[in-house]
Specification:
Helix content is 58%, strand content 0%. Helix 4 crosses helix 6, helix 5 runs antiparallel to helix 6 and helix 9 crosses helix 12.
Length: 212
């Protein structure tokens, strides 16, 4: 019997069907995320679908040849939540370790490990040395991945960056590592979001599409 659960059949063509070179990377990333998240963590899978869609919409904020890498990172950014991958219990690191062990592109691996300001959280959790093994980049690509993640909440619901930050702190709790890291992490998230909006404005693309 075919398994039941959230599907990705509604994902837009720009996410699922690019040219041959793009499809190799983005489809491999989608299939990996689907395998690890869809059945075990359906809500996380819906979030991932939403982030991948958002990333496809943000192509104008990154160099043209980096669009496939952005979408692939969006698909993979939360795979560390899968019980199969958990080593440290910190999903950005666990996702990065899994991908690195399997020979994925080093830049993609580092983007997953550092997504959404993750580097500010391990300081509190004692994972700084592990995180330091993943090169950090601050670029249009990393900004766009952060913006995509921080404008999609649980179940793929669209929300503002400010609301997403508040929602996550509420969900994880005021004494959680995410909450304690907010002094450094929140300014980083807000600055990255503004840089993405500025880049989209420069190319004449709205940060939010009409009706969303």
């Amino acid at each position: 019997m075919k398994d039941q659960g959230p599907d990705d059949s509604t994902a837009p063509a720009s996410v699922l069907d690019d040219d041959a070179e793009e499809t190799d990377l983005t489809e491999r990333a989608r299939k990996t995320a689907r395998k690890l998240l869809r059945k075990e963590l359906p809500e996380r899978w819906q979030h991932t679908l939403g982030v991948a869609r958002r990333a496809a919409e943000l192509a104008g904020a990154v160099p043209r040849d980096e669009g496939p890498l952005l979408i692939a990172a969006a698909w993979l950014h939360d795979i560390g939540y899968s019980s199969e991958l958990q080593l440290t219990g910190f999903h950005p690191i666990d996702g990065g370790l899994y991908l690195r062990e399997r020979g994925w592109d080093p830049r993609l691996v580092a983007l997953v490990a550092h997504h959404s300001g993750a580097r500010y959280v391990p300081v509190d959790r004692g994972f700084s040395e592990i995180m330091a093994t993943f090169p950090f980049e601050e670029s249009p690509l990393s900004d766009a991945l952060t913006y995509a993640d921080q404008t999609v909440g649980p179940n793929g619901v669209r929300m503002t960056v400010e609301y997403r930050i508040a929602e996550a702190i509420t969900r994880h709790g005021p004494n959680s590592p995410n909450a304690r890291a907010r002094v450094d992490r929140v300014p980083y998230l807000l600055a990255a979001a503004q840089r993405v909006r500025d880049r989209l404005h420069h190319v004449g693309q709205p940060a939010v599409r009409p009706g969303q």
